[in-house]
Design a protein that fits this description.
2 domains, binds coenzyme A, alpha/beta, Peroxisomal Thiolase, Chain A, domain 1, single chain, five-stranded mixed sheet
């Protein structure tokens, strides 16, 4: 009988736009303060993309780096997936724009929408495709430009978000199995606590949707916070259970970087100390689908994790959606 096909991680890459927007810069835009933002969220600055730098461009820059590390050419890919909630356009998919930028044709390419959980959902999809034998070499990207769907007059939300992209290359393997487990969940009952109302088929764009500012993120922060902590802890524990590993086998935990207080509460709930948790929220804010993969890439580049180490990614986002993945670097 044929041996089970496993997944090998070939490389990661990330890209953050050059422009830095600090908390002091935000003090000039809305009624806020560096002290308030730092204390309530842990965020000190975030990156903002240029007007002529769409999500596919950040995705392209991150992908080129991941392909370099993987030491493969774009022509060796046979599938592209981008997790994003800020696509270049409704259609074609941002994955098609990325495919064009990478100079390749014919291979399938599609976007995946699961808000901030998109990248972890993408890991699950990639794993299933590779294990089924349908695709051999997959480029999975998490890319978002939340600055372009942010209400810059709303101090409750505009201090939280940023832009960036991260990418990972997976291949099939008879020897390695680097995705040990993935656990996913969703609950559409909470869809109105974190959402972008207009522009879709419920409220197609009209003059009034624009004047009422319905094309920007709406959020009930406190309710989101309350839901995020137990769901992230649950996902972390379920993925561990599925992997057959113990909490002590994990070198570092990389939670979704939405709020340092959420991260600390999740760490406490699953019983780990903060020195085992990777945090870069102070530099990036929340970059939705890009968060866990840009943090993972930073952790690898900084030598916080080495070849063979096991990492747990834990996430939560609009939907609500949540999930966790245990991977070997
Ligand atoms: N600067 C200064 N004051 C602000 C502010 C800001 N940027 N944003 C809100 N406030 C004020 C509020 O107006 C409120 O004032 P009031 O008490 O006079 O009414 C006060 O701060 C407290 O607001 P509250 O919403 O209760 O604060 P909080 O402690 O819950 O923190 C969040 C707000 C948004 C930081 C926090 O709820 C959060 O991070 N939630 C999760 C958001 C998230 O992660 N979303 C993405 C998930 S993927």
């Amino acid at each position: 009988m044929d041996k089970k096909i496993g997944v090998k991680i070939l490389g990661t890459g990330s890209y953050l736009p050059e422009k830095i927007l600090t908390n002091s810069d935000l003090e000039k835009i809305v009624d806020t303060s560096d002290e308030w933002i730092s204390a309530r969220t842990g965020i000190r600055e975030r990156r903002i993309s240029k007007s002529n730098e769409p999500t596919s461009e950040l995705a392209y820059k991150a992908s080129i780096k991941a392909l370099e590390v993987a030491n493969i050419s774009p022509k060796q890919l046979d599938l592209i997936i981008i997790a994003t909630i800020t696509p270049d356009m409704f259609f074609p998919s941002t994955a098609c724009f990325l495919q064009r930028k990478l100079g390749i044709v014919s291979i399938p390419a599609f976007d995946l929408s699961a808000a901030c959980s998109g990248f972890v959902y993408g890991i699950s999809v990639s794993k299933a495709f590779i294990e089924s034998g349908l695709y051999k070499t997959i480029l999975l990207v998490g890319a978002d430009e939340l600055s372009k769907i942010t209400d810059w007059k709303d101090k409750n939300t505009c201090v939280l978000f940023g832009d960036g992209a991260g990418a990972i290359v997976f291949s099939n393997s008879q020897k390695d199995d680097d995705i040990l487990s993935v656990f996913l969940g969703a609950d559409g009952l909470y869809s109105d606590l974190l959402f972008l109302p207009a522009g879709g088929s419920v409220y197609p764009a009209t003059e009034s949707t624009v004047s009422e500012n319905l094309h920007t993120i709406k959020m009930q922060g406190r309710e989101v916070f309350k839901a995020a902590v137990p769901k992230m802890a649950l996902a972390a524990e379920k993925a561990l259970e599925l992997s057959g590993k113990s909490i002590n086998d994990i070198k570092i935990f990389i939670p979704h970087q939405a709020n340092i207080r959420i991260i600390e509460a999740v760490a406490k709930k699953i019983g780990i100390s903060m020195d085992r948790v990777f945090v870069n929220i102070h530099k990036t804010g929340n970059i939705s689908s890009a968060t866990t993969i840009t943090a993972l890439d930073e952790a690898i580049k900084a030598g916080k994790v080495c070849k063979g180490d096991i990492v747990e990614l834990i996430t939560f986002g609009g939907g609500f959606t949540w999930g966790a993945a245990i991977i070997r670097i």
